[in-house]
Amino acid sequence: MILYPPDDPFLFYFTLFGLPIAVRWYGVLIMGGALLGAYLASRRAVARGYDPDHVWNQLMLGLIMGIAGARIYYVIFEWERFAPNPWSVLNLTTGGLAIHGGLIGAVLSVLIYTRWNRLPFWEWLDICVPGFLLGQAIGRWGNFFNQEAYGRPTDLPFGVRIDADRRLPPYTNLQEYPLDTVFHATFLYESVWNFIGVGLLLLLDRQLGHGAPPKQRRLRPGDLFFIYAIFYSAGRFWIEGLRLDSLYLGPLRTAQVVSLVLMSAGVVGLLINHWRRPSRRA
């Protein structure tokens, strides 16, 4: 199966009273993923006895801080690209969002919201994290429409074709890499991995967490978030090794370094969480 992105990255584009009105698939998929993720989180909040309006109220803060964090993170590692025209930092239409920065912003938004509304931080993270991963899984398809976040050429029977003007060197050489060259669809790999992760988190919560009978519950507040950090980072580590557009920290791929840190932090978090005595609420 060979995927080929549409020539037009816009859902629609027209001019109204001389003003261009444009909606990109990239933005639609990010917002659609966020809304579906919030819907899932609101259902989980109701199941735990919380007002679902908290999820929708937090969504606005989470979107602002998540997108800001994702952009700031990306710009930090790509500053040479933006230095000649710093105002281009504000142009998000062509991508340039790093999910690890978005994760930092999203977690900070949860911290702020739960402190302001006196909600339990770790339990609220557990409520939201399957929805966050669902949003990641859907949002990754925005990379498909932007023809970005693809991997090196592959001989596999499935992959993605990329237009010459969207390729990175040396794959712009059409004599060596003709238009029918197939690249690793790394955005697809990560999307599928994330969908599997959503199912895993929901299954664990149902079998060992809040959805299980009291005597069968083994998960403590924060466990689902730590499991998310381990699972997502494990997939991101190997997928990142295939990508051509990685951010670098010296000679190392930044996403792989951060993934190793998150996996280690997730393991340590689980150990500490189960080593200490549970709180009365837990």
Account of the protein in words:
There is one protein chain. The protein is built from nine helices and six strands. By secondary structure, the chain is mostly helical. The strands form three sheets. A two-stranded parallel ribbon has the order 1-4. A two-stranded antiparallel sheet has the order 2-3. It has a two-stranded antiparallel ribbon with strand order 5-6. Helix 1 (25-47) runs antiparallel to helix 5, helix 5 (121-139) runs antiparallel to helix 7 (186-208) and helix 7 (186-208) packs antiparallel against helix 8 (223-240). It is globular, with a radius of gyration of 20 Å. The model has no long low-confidence stretch (mean pLDDT 93). This is Phosphatidylglycerol--prolipoprotein diacylglyceryl transferase. It is a multi-pass membrane protein. Belongs to the Lgt family. Pathway: Protein modification; lipoprotein biosynthesis (diacylglyceryl transfer).
